[in-house]
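Batch manifest line 659
LIGAND: adenosine-5'-triphosphate
JOB: complex structure
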Amino acid sequence: MTPTLDIAGLSTHFFTRDGIAKAVDGVSFSIAPGEVLGLVGESGSGKSVTGFSILGLVDPPGRVVAGAIRFKGEDLVGADAQRLRSLRGNRIAMVFQDPMMTLNPVLRIGEQMTEAISAHSKATKSEAQARARDALGAVGIASPEERLTAYPHHLSGGMRQRVAIAIALINAPDLLIADEPTTALDVTIQGQILSVVQRLVARSHTALLWITHDLSVVAGLADRIAVMYAGRIVEQGAVDGLLTCPRHPYTAGLLASLPERAVHGGRLASIPGMAPSLLNRPQGCAFRSRCGLARPECGNAMIAEKQVGDRRFACLHPLADSAGQVM
Amino acid sequence: MEATPLLAAERIDKRFERRLDFAGRLAVKLGAAPGNETVHALDGVSLAVRRGEVLGVVGESGCGKSTLGRILAGIMPASSGRILWQGADRDRLTGTERRTVKLAVQMVFQDPASSLNPRMRVADIIGEAPLVHGQVTRAELGDYIDTILRDVGLDPAMKQRYPHQFSGGQRQRIGIARALAVEPQCIIADEAVAALDVSIRAQIINLFDELRQKRDLTYLFISHDLGIVRFIADRVVVMYLGRVVESAPTSALFAAPNHPYTVALLAGAPRLEDRKRAFAAIEGEIPSPLNPPRGCHFHPRCPHVMARCREEAPRLSEIAPGRLSACHLNQA
Ligand SMILES: Nc1ncnc2c1ncn2[C@@H]1O[C@H](COP(=O)(O)OP(=O)(O)OP(=O)(O)O)[C@@H](O)[C@H]1O
Ligand SMILES: Nc1ncnc2c1ncn2[C@@H]1O[C@H](COP(=O)(O)OP(=O)(O)O)[C@@H](O)[C@H]1O
Ligand code: SF4
Ligand code: SF4
Ligand SMILES: [Mg+2]
Ligand SMILES: [Mg+2]
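JOB STATUS: finished
ARTIFACT:
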């Protein structure tokens, strides 16, 4: 089966006055129809730039400098602006942390929704209206008929985000890219959004890329997880295996520093130091200065990815797998 | 009998007059709306912080956590109610006693970048207050600052730098150092690790814990992150729309939450142990504190709502030793 999204060796660099920031540097992953991939990493690790690259929304001084992005087999890196525009909001949709990035503050909710429908199909006005109302109802907004005439600023943050999601999903896209859409929201509202996305994605067999820094969210949502560090994916694989038996020292360190698994009154395991600047990333493994398992050879060359079963990781001295095998 | 708490709030109320925006003023002119709006941010909040404990405060955005923290820290006045320091009404203290008590409670904020003066060097940010208050002499100041910097895990060699030359985690260490410089007994940490990345967050949480032991500190730890509160707090206070709805020892609260809101909050939080979970959450929006529902503030979202809940606000009362909850179900 052709994956919905297949990314190979993607590199997106920013050519700034201070030097070249290699925000994304050799990233590969793919997502099948109906599959949920959680892309996790700390701030500045390149998650959002990965998402923008797929959408063709990287602005100068940034540029995709290498790699392939194939959407249902079609190459997007070489595609012209018009083709990308016709895919966005239709076959490929997105939601961001700030819903106002996609909502227009001076248009009524209903107008924005019917516009999204008629831009990509030949629905009549009343058909579009009815679809918009149903879409609002589907994201759990009470009295959707009335809300169609509201402006974004009439709604709470959580409602705005649900409207943004309703618009993103209105044309049943093949791929949804969600960049931290619940990060600014409260737990009970986050739960509402997750349940909405989960249901709609399952119904239309959408491939979902869920970008977040919160491992707990993707633990319950995703099929697979990709962990990003300093512009590269250091480990990826099925959720359960990756969370119970991480192979890359950074993944292991992240998991250990979560208070959830720690004993009250004890100490949290923490990763010493901080992430390197992307302007002058060290040669070899970028995690080296923080890694307890580092050896001199870790600094020699770019660390190639290894594959064991469904797991991929980029590390010379990985942690043992559950069978105790170090390889 | 229980010992006198170090710091206590007694029936604290806080109202904010909100100035209307243009559309709002227009509506008033046209007679379509009443005048300025009042936000009832805190509604009769009482709590006690015991010496040496970590008291966690949780609740959703806008429920009044920061307002409560600021009032307890003495940097914002309450509309009514009393703040007690070791049993004494803080507003009635005078002279040196008043000044000493003011310094005894210090605050650490969420956003280390905006809470530090960008034009001051780290040494001055930390040294200013203890010098002004005569806690150290100018001759001792250099060594004093170095000691504090080492305590918070920063290299004293960096003390002539400006805040922007530090990472987010380091800036939060500076914020903590500034609070420690006046030798407080109690630290109020308002979302103090929320802006930090996971791996850095763990470093700062550990630092809080070390300092607590080393300097005999008491903490009020405000956070919306239940995982962190569960880890760090001895007791937890749960707030909803300006009121305390439950308080309990941490382990008891997480093992068996009593208030329906607490139950929903704990059930909704994502967990690392979840796999392909079917997400569901309590229905409804968090109501606006401008116009809170009558009776129990949680009633429009509560699965157990009864007629009485819509009329009468439940009182916060003891449901077990050391446990308080404000729900009519406990009186049924
Ligand atoms: N200076 C102010 N003027 C007007 N309203 C205010 C002011 N400060 C706070 N409020 C209001 O008081 C209520 C409580 O605010 P507070 O900042 O204490 O919430 P919080 O629980 O700390 O929320 P968060 O988790 O978002 O930080 C909110 O409705 C807020 O909008
Ligand atoms: N417009 C830009 N100009 C220069 N650098 C940028 C720009 N956008 C992003 N970057 C850099 O790219 C890196 C990755 O950013 P981003 O993908 O936003 O991280 P995150 O993982 O937090 O989403 C960061 O170091 C960021 O500073
Ligand atoms: S390659 Fe070396 S430095 Fe990098 S994570 Fe693996 S062991 Fe650590
Ligand atoms: S008082 Fe009533 S509405 Fe409020 S939490 Fe208890 S049962 Fe629910
Ligand atoms: Mg981002
Ligand atoms: Mg706050």
